[in-house]
Description:
The protein has 21 helices and no strands. The protein is an all-alpha fold. The chain is globular, with a radius of gyration of 22 Å. The chain crosses the membrane at residues 21-40, 75-98, 134-152, 236-259, 265-283, 290-312, 318-343, 355-374, 386-406. Keywords: Cell membrane, Membrane, Sugar transport, Transmembrane, Transmembrane helix, Transport. Pfam families: Sugar_tr.
Amino acid sequence: MGPRLMSKEDTPAAEPVHPEVISWMASVAYLVGTPAVFLFGYIVDNYGRKKALMLTSLSMAACWGLKLYSTDTWALITARAIIGLGVSGSYVVTPLYIKEISEDCIRGTLGSLVVLSQNLGNLLVYILGEYLCYQATLWICLSVPLIHLLLFPTMPETPSYLLKSGKIEEARSALAWLRCRQPTDTVVDSELQTLLLELEQTSSSKFFTTLRTLVSDRSIFRAFRITLTITLARELCGCLTVLHFASSIFSAAGGSLLLTPNQQAAVLGIVQLVGSCTASSLVERTGRKPLLGTTCLVSGVAMAVLGAWFALSAGAHAWVPVLALCLCIYCDAAGLQPVPFVVMTEMFSFQYRGTVTSIVIAFACALVSVQLRVFQPLATQVGLYLVFWLFAGVCLISTAYIVFYVPETKRRSIEEIYAEFDGKKEKDPEADVTRL
Length: 436
């Protein structure tokens, strides 16, 4: 939508939207999302996962409705701020909801579907933006949260939250429905007892009490540092920036390709979708750590090649930036985006999961808002090649961190993961790397 809004001939606004406004539109959603994740952290713990998810769809519907109402600058930026609530809420609540309704053997696959659905939406918008008018695209986007608001009330609340609220029989019924069994089935009873035991061992506490434990307990704090570091790698790999400004990057690349910039961006969306499908099939087969490390390494190499092309031969061999961007986007969707969410939910118990998720998503939103806000001005000042080399450096350094310090969490209990932390040497060199 950005190129169309900036277009002199095809803009739906009263006048072409300035690139500075486009930068604000890209970043303001994540800027608002930074404090909003703590709001959703409170809602998800006090009112339930289900109601929190309904609220995310309501904010997204409000965003698309406001864009349909007006194309003035205030409306475009306000709409993006409103959707920031939905985006941050989705990233806080959806991993929790999926983790708490899924069985251990399919948790990784279901967790990767969060990013798969996001990438499917990106591809849909790329295609709609190329072939439909602005208003038709917005009406289709509006229909998605409205359909969710109509259908999701039929879904159950998570058994873990129902147990936390003291609703044991409702939790039993929800668990039986999710497992396609009778409430009296022994499998349902066994899993319910496991959830009750986990709830007893991790009694509920206030936010700041939980935060104090996160910092004071050595194993939990190490898991927290690892989660923040792989989140840093995920957000500063450059892929999200590339997706937001894909059309502008392809325009800068030029070349003799027959595809328009929007069509080239749609190609990225297809690659992203294929990568997400790969993640869904590989995350349980290969494990979390190998998939995350490999995709981070390949993404870094692709970003380095992309930077070299812009530095040395911009205008020649126009297929090079397309291939490099596709490889980077594929790796991002196949590992860098979905795996950190899975690892995060598998390294913390029910007591800490909501708090950690809120802090991590706030941290991610802050990184992304700054990144999207400064990308276009920075690329203009120092050149695209240097920006891509910075992204490449982050990926390569992160790969080394993943290899040496990130544990494998596939089908392992929290106790097993923390026992691995405690089994290391007393001196914790990972802490020094994280502080650097």
